[in-house]
Amino acid sequence: MNTILICRILAASALLVTSISASAYSPSNADADSKTVRVFIFAGQSNMVGSDSKVKDIKLFPPFVGLDMPQEKVLYSYNIGREDKLTSNGWVALQPVDGVVGPELSFARKVSQQIKAPIAIIKCAAGGTTLGGDWNPDDPSGFKLYPLTLQLIQSSLAELDRQKIPYRIEGFMWHQGENDMFDKVFRPNYARNLKNFIASWRRDLKTPSLRFYIGELCTKTVWGMDNRSNMYAIRTGQKEVTSSDPLAVYIPTSHDAVEIGGGAGLHYHYGTLGQLEHGINYADAYLRAIGKKPIANRPLKVWPYGKGSTVKLFVLAGHRNMEGERAFVEGLKALPGEEELANDDQKIAYKYCIGGGYKSSNGWEPLGPAGYYDTFGPELSFGKTLASALHENIAIAKFTQSGSQMNDWTLQGTEAKDLNLYPKFVAFIQQSIKELQAKGHRVELAGIFYHVGENDMSFGPYRSNSAKWLQSTIVQSRQDLALPSLKWYISQQPPTDEKGLNSIDVTANLAAIAAADPAFIHIKAFNLPPQKEQLVITTEGIVQLGELLAHSYLEHH
């Protein structure tokens, strides 16, 4: 054990050296002192390991710069991997292991910035493992990860006891289930197995009030399409447990970035950016649980529209690029003339529901950056371009879910019922209109601006049906909003160029709908700035996409 390191870390945190039982924790005294080390356990399979992430890429993502360096004030004990395990052999300073990025890195920094107490992380994770087998508390098979993790936790805490360092086990972060979904026995029994898993940890660690944070299986991966029903079964099991256990929280992750790879650009893992965001999700959930998560308040200082005036409402909708997955506010500094987009525009009212509800505005806010990870979408340049050309009141409402596919936006939806977005989408539009009307305005729904689903373009069965699904959504929305001539502005980036997909001409399919429907405006966004990765447009491209959408409206309205 690195006794010198532990003493140095704890001295920096000004800890008292008096012992405290881990079982002394209760939610009511969650932040009663700033001396006791908060111990967090991270466990699961490959998306907890950090597979297909790269430490060298952290510098590409402004909100996370610096996480490639050791966090000297955070203790870390780990056992990671399958046959060839990487172990810390005691406590070390938190840092990337083997060039891989795990969620613990961003989690630790975020939590450390918000609480005064020192933190420690114990991590045991191995890819391709199951809750029904490897992690089974009663009859572990395969890599026998339950007893392995228990031994790691016990030995790590025993060292703190020997040093008379006060600690308590504060939370258990769990991300797993992808492999159980392929087993016909494990899949339907995931909820039962997860309940037993949680109960076993609370018993074996003597922490009856231990909180669990259960990470969602990311639907943005290729498995969100070709294993849609299987993933839904696991999510259903997870939600069953978290809805019945007041100390277990379901953590949405489908809005997080996913590694781009393979010929079609789809992947199974979060990758570097997604892992960093993954950690923030856990941190935010924990901070909410202890009352430390501040609520961002971006109020309109003065309502920008005259009493009784008409307001044109523009609705933006879509997936990864409409959310702005890789468009960072910090990147605006490198774009001459666009720096002002980082500032709130108090003259344009903005309302949003992004990530399928992961983050929503507090009523109407000023138009400005509002992404969950210091990101923004095309709405900023869209609003700026319209405002400079129109002498009318404009308001923008944005609804996105980057973990969805185009069939999720149809009235029929799919077997993954928790992803059925259409009713929420239409209700969001209707509510936005009612809110403006309640302020005394006549509201003109100027159009719906939808960016075609990126993942759908990279998977054959979805690419074949995407235009049909979109047309279904458009027809239904016009009926439900009682606007038979409602204009839909459909933007499309170049579809994935891959031999197995190129025989499906999705551009021609969309063009055919546009030819038959004068209120369907097909926008070919084929000349955006080159991007390093497939599918996901970066900062400069997102700015130009917003401008392109606005110019299309100005041309056709």
Q: Could you explain how this protein is built, in words?
A:
The protein folds into two domains: 3-15 and 31-289, SGNH hydrolase (Rossmann fold, 3-Layer(aba) Sandwich); 310-556, 3-Layer(aba) Sandwich (Rossmann fold), CATH 3.40.50. It has 14 helices and 16 strands. The model is unreliable at 12-30 (pLDDT under 50). The protein has helices spanning 3-12, 46-49, 103-114, 145-162, 190-204, 223-226, 228-244, 271-289, 320-323, 379-389, 422-438, 460-480, 506-516, 539-556; strands spanning 37-44, 71-80, 86-87, 92-94, 119-125, 167-175, 212-215, 248-251, 310-318, 345-354, 359-360, 365-367, 393-400, 442-451, 488-492, 520-524. The protein is of the alpha/beta class. Strands 1, 2, 3, 4, 5, 6, 7 and 8 form an eight-stranded mixed sheet that branches. Strands 9, 10, 11, 12, 13, 14, 15 and 16 form an eight-stranded mixed sheet that branches. β6, α5 (190-204) and β7 form a beta-alpha-beta unit.
